[in-house]
Amino acid sequence: MNAASFEIIYHFTLPDRSATTVELCIDAEQLNLLNELPRPLPSWTMLGFHQCPNCTLDAQTSAICPVAAHLVQILPSCNKLISYDEVDVDVVTSERKMSVHTKAEMAISAMMGLIFATSGCPHMDFFRPMARFHLPFATQEETLFRSTGTYLIGQYLRQRQGHEPDFDLSGLEVIYEEIKTVNRSVAARLRAATKTDSALNALVLLDIHAQILPYALKTFLDKLDYLFIPFWMSQCR
């Protein structure tokens, strides 16, 4: 790793006490994965194989699906596990180390979300800033807070650049609608590529966030006002 990149390492201890490590190297500015893709790539990574209906890539210039291609490196480990296997996971960044004991599907889902965000899929570009401040095993509440916060920061910066901002979060709902379509197509790829259910169920866990976000924006965010009451009161003094 050089100064222009950073690593996030997932170290798994499997139920049989064997270990496997996935090192994800990410460009520090573009926030895209730098890991070298395995060659040859399997046929299920080709762009035209269960291509997302909303895909903006052209098979003439992009032969492979970037999400699928980067998932190849983790599938050998996934195929050793079923969803409810208990695993120990260490997630190591330059700032900290997080250790958890959890189900395989939860651990794979956390790592898969990071891969999606940094894969180069245009529909995942919104999540690149969140990848820079990766928070594995986030709760639904934490994910909602982080995604809305990321979107609003982006809109503020967009306004600073002279563009019309969207502070009512309507654009965030559109982003997650597109993500749901991507998830369905990636699921079809995984069904063709995996031997166990761990990777597919990990994707299901990711998709839950996309499914609930439109509802959560209309209901749950209002319930967070208690967090800001002390600040609002101090502003009124």
- Residue runs with pLDDT of under 50 for 5 or more positions: none
Major sheet summary line: 4 strands, antiparallel
Averaging pLDDT over every residue, what do you get? 93
**Structural class given helices, strands, pairing?**
alpha+beta
What is the element string, with H for helices and E for strands? EEHHEEHHHHHH
The number of helical segments is 8
Q: How many domains, in number, for the residues?
A: 1
What is the rounded Rg? 19 Å
- Beta strand count: 4
Residues in helix, %: 40-55%
Task: Give the N-terminus to C-terminus distance in angstroms.
Answer: 50 Å
Overall, the morphology is globular
Strand order of the largest sheet: 2-1-3-4
What fraction of the residues are assigned to beta strands by DSSP?
A: 5-15%
